[in-house]
Amino acid sequence: MIKKRIQQGHKIYGGPVPTDIQIHSLETPRNNHPHLLNILGIRLIHYFSFVVVILYFSITTTDRFFHSYSNTRYRTTANLPNKGKKECSPLDIFGDISPLTASTDAPIEAIHSIFNCNSQESPSADKVLTGRCKWFFPNHFFNETCGDGHSYRSQLQYLQIMQRNGSLWPYMPSIFLHTVSLHPHMEWKWSYRNEPFQTLNLTMIHVHKTGGSSMVQAYRDLNHRLPKVNGVDHGLSSNVYLVYKPKFTNTPALSSTLDSSLTLHLLQNVTKYPSSWGTNDHILIAMVRDPIQRFISSLGQAMGGAGSKSSRKSLISVQQLVSTCLTNKTHDKSTQGERRQKVLKCAIEYIEKNGYWFDVHFTPMVLEIAFVTGIEQSIPVAIFPFEALPAILYELGANPFRKFKDGSKLGVRPDIRLTEMSVKDLDLDMLRDVCELYRVDVIFMKHLGYSTQCDNILM
């Protein structure tokens, strides 16, 4: 039973946990009393005491272990123990998520902007798939007393320790914040829009495998446009700010972004959608995706998908993942579906054993977001569901339906099993394992009010 619970706890942190729990035997001293009754009586007392001690240590050891690893799983703010502290209010749990309303002095475009979370959807986006964003405050989610994700605060702290000692995501791409400022007087007819741009200062957190590459490309396309129209500067600007550059990365970093104080200043000026734009005001956005669908995409990327080939060749952990799980057996008579399942099962077991910190694409979404913002200050992030990607691309003037890295196309992923892989290839046990690995993201999505395929499996 203890071993089973250890294995369950193993999945919580995405890596190995100690399995050497031992219950040391108690050696009963011999009694050389000559009287038989005394000998029997003393030995019975010793044996009885021995049984009691063993039972006590078995129960307490198991309960403590199970509590420390497994009891963190589904706890939400509804059953958080306050331990004498103040009761948790909605503001304590979620932060200030109230939207602008028509009663404020905000212009009508602000009331209808899709970047004003919980507002009316933008009429300009009617021709594309739209979705509503939700305001998210990482510091509230990971709050020790009231946060739905308080049990995972240690994971975030572990990421920060790895960042400081340089062991986090070696050979992986650098982590940037991408910014752009838009204005109605900008030239827009070159774009996929059918109307002028909104006034908008927008910064993006690139959450991997949630459409981020398509958004980064849209930012780059904007950056290539001249900031002046008829000789007048109308405010178009675009830049990138470095958050973290892993060791051995080959990702180029602009010299102007290497100053961490600039990134810190940028984060200090994040705001919810304002009624009027200050010089430094900007909105911070991020995209999220169903954890199971994201895992399939992450696997295809980490095993040598377009843009990750250098890390596949350089990082030992990725090499081991590929050599262990993506082998080609000449005499394998399994069907293609069975072969895909073998790859999935092998990859899940590998991540359960080795953790998901060796490749940024496997990192839980909410940890990626909080890694960028930190949890020391209250920073609002506009979180969009994956289905809203076309609407955001439209707002940036990009093709709403272009997929920059479409894993279902031949050549994007290095193996046909990865190209054809889908959620349907996961059996119930594998589904449960993936949901367990990414339980913190399931709790995060539930915190925002978004449903996932893991809800029925875990809850």
What would your notes on this structure say?
The chain contains 18 helices and 8 strands. It is of the alpha/beta class and 459 residues long. It folds into 2 domains: 2-19 and 35-66, no CATH class; 99-458, no CATH class. The strands form 2 sheets. The chain has a 6-stranded mixed beta sheet with strand order 1-8-7-3-2-6, sandwiched between helices. The protein has a two-stranded antiparallel ribbon with strand order 4-5.
Shape: globular
Mean pLDDT: 76
> What is the number of E strands?
8
- Biggest β-sheet strands, sense, barrel: 6 strands, mixed
Q: For the CA atoms, what is the radius of gyration?
A: 27 Å
Order of helices and strands: HHHHEHHEEHEEEHEHHHHHEHHHHH
Strands, helices and their partners?
Elements lengths: L1 H9 L25 H34 L20 H5 L13 H5 L21 E3 L1 H4 L11 H13 L9 E8 L17 E6 L6 H12 L4 E2 L2 E2 L3 E8 L15 H9 L14 E6 L2 H12 L6 H6 L1 H10 L10 H19 L10 H9 L7 E5 L3 H7 L20 H5 L7 H10 L1 H10 L6 H4 L1
Parallel strand pairs: 3-7, 7-8
Antiparallel strand pairs: 1-8, 2-3, 2-6, 4-5
